[in-house]
């Protein structure tokens, strides 16, 4: 009961921080940066932080913990896999739009692309996310993928999923830093520069903190093995024939660790459950 | 054997990336930024990235995996705890010097302190690291701390240790971004600005990638439960009397998960081993 309360508190904190992040980035671009448009100018650029925050931080973070929600434990495995894959596909689409916006803006203003550390890590994260989605779909959703491949790949999928989310947070914090320095500088059309801490800088720094703490909540929830979806509540038995080494005792003992790569150990658990545990 | 090779490969990669990061930051400040001095000017500022990289990234990252080295598994628990605490104390001292350097520089140049997101997250990380070291020393190294407090705190210590290391990486990447924008700009004493990708920018962007991938190696090693120090090889029995619920079967089965907060489960494992597992 104590642990359940902790889970609910952390989940509510994550939801609140995700909402705060979304609100802060919208206030930033709508109130201080002129709003949103698709004009190859600064208003088009503004889609980049908005979609980056909503897509790669809020939605992709929530996708990492979607299997942990106890209210979904009666849903079928296939449904949960599709929700997880769907959220990550939405993230990918939003990130492609956000990249088109920033490349359009750069090209129209003759600003070089891909020179900053933010752009290197950010684009690498989007490409890795795309590969992660593609491999995840092929391996966990195609019915004919051999179970030993699922078991081998699952631990890599889990670690890289968390790592890509970490890269997204790093890219977001660097992007905030870049944008505040470029826009709030002496000589540009602002009353106070970044170093004089105007209200815009305070709000956007706060956005950076919201993103960081949101990430902390997601990582905490995603690394607690006792909050995993219980295997015995799996309703969908479509792939039972793929579980040659099912050992009910192991499964019910809940002795699975959150080791991200231990294929030999994974083979002792319920292999039917492999796809479902892709975010643990 | 396969897993041992993976461990050695990852450890060598981490050592190589830590060395590359140290070399890159030294080349940066010595070749392009005028070197190091304690003059309240730019040369004093240069201690900030150098000590930040060596202390908060390389040393503090290595401290996270020090219990995982198989060559140390015959060393006593107390020795390993002291090595872990010692490395983190060295990190703290280096970070204090690196902060004094940057505050000195800012004050002498009348640049405001603590306005940037880098400074907010970086200082928060140093303060949290200091608290982590202090609490770790009190709880895991003082002999009279009750075992139930060690067991309760251990999982928090593990998560916050990894989270603070993540904050250090984020702060480093933002610091690199800030410094490159401030120094490589049109009008300052440089031939090419950051957006024109001069060699200095390429090297320092590469430093950011080395730091990121080093962090990835450390997180991978630190989250593999099968690479934990085996409890049965504990040589130091000084606190055997503190292990009221020792269950040899559980310990030898290696059924401990890397759940970071599951106090009830922890109480079923060898409580003597609690301090030792503080980095897992």
What does this 3D model show about the protein?
Two copies of one chain form a homodimer. Chain A has 280 residues and is mostly helical. The first copy, chain A, contains nine helices and no strands. Chain A has helices spanning 2-32, 42-45, 47-64, 77-108, 117-141, 147-183, 199-222, 248-253, 263-266. The longest helix of chain A is centred in the middle third of the chain and has 37 residues, at 147-183. The radius of gyration of chain A is 21 Å and the shape is globular. Residues 233-280 of chain A have low confidence and may be disordered.
* Spatial gap, N to C terminus of chain A: 21 Å
Poorly predicted ranges of chain A (pLDDT <50, ≥5 residues)?
233-280
Count every helix of chain A, treating DSSP H or I runs of 4 or more residues as helices.
9
Q: What percent of the residues of chain A sit in helical stretches (DSSP H or I)?
A: 55-70%
Q: How many strands appear in the DSSP assignment of chain A?
A: 0
**Oligomeric status of the shown chains?**
homodimer
**Mind summarizing the main beta sheet of chain A?**
none
Most extensive chain-chain interface = A-B, 51 and 51 residues
Mean pLDDT of chain A: 86
| Structural class by SSE content of chain A | mainly alpha
Net shape of chain A: globular
Spatial extent as radius of gyration of chain A = 21 Å
* Strand/helix succession of chain A: HHHHHHHHH
How much of the sequence lies in strands of chain A comes to under 5%
């Amino acid at each position: 009961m104590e642990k359940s309360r902790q889970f609910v508190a952390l989940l509510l904190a994550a939801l609140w921080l995700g909402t705060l992040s979304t609100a802060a980035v919208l206030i930033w671009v709508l109130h201080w940066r002129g709003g949103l448009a698709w004009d190859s100018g600064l208003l088009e650029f503004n889609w980049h932080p908005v979609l980056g925050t909503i897509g790669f931080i809020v939605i992709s973070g929530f996708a990492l913990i979607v299997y942990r929600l106890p209210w979904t434990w009666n849903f079928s495995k296939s449904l949960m896999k599709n929700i997880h894959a769907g959220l990550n596909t939405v993230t990918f689409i939003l990130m492609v739009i956000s990249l088109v916006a920033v490349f359009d803006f750069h090209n129209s203003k003759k600003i070089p692309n891909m020179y900053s550390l933010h752009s290197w890590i950010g684009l690498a994260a989007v490409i890795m996310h795309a590969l992660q989605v593609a491999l995840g779909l092929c391996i966990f959703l195609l019915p004919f993928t051999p179970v030993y491949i699922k078991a081998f790949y699952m631990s890599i999928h889990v670690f890289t999923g968390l790592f890509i989310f970490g890269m997204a947070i790093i890219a977001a914090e660097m992007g905030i830093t870049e944008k505040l320095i470029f826009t709030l500088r002496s000589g540009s059309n602002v009353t106070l520069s970044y170093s004089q801490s105007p209200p815009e800088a305070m709000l956007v720094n706060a956005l950076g903190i919201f993103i960081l703490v949101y990430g902390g909540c997601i990582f905490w929830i995603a690394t607690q093995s006792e909050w995993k979806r219980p295997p015995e509540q799996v309703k969908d038995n479509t792939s039972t024939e793929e579980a040659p080494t099912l050992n009910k005792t192991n499964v019910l003992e809940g002795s699975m660790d959150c080791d991200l790569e231990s294929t030999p150990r994974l083979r002792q658990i319920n292999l039917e459950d492999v796809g479902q545990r892709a975010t643990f």
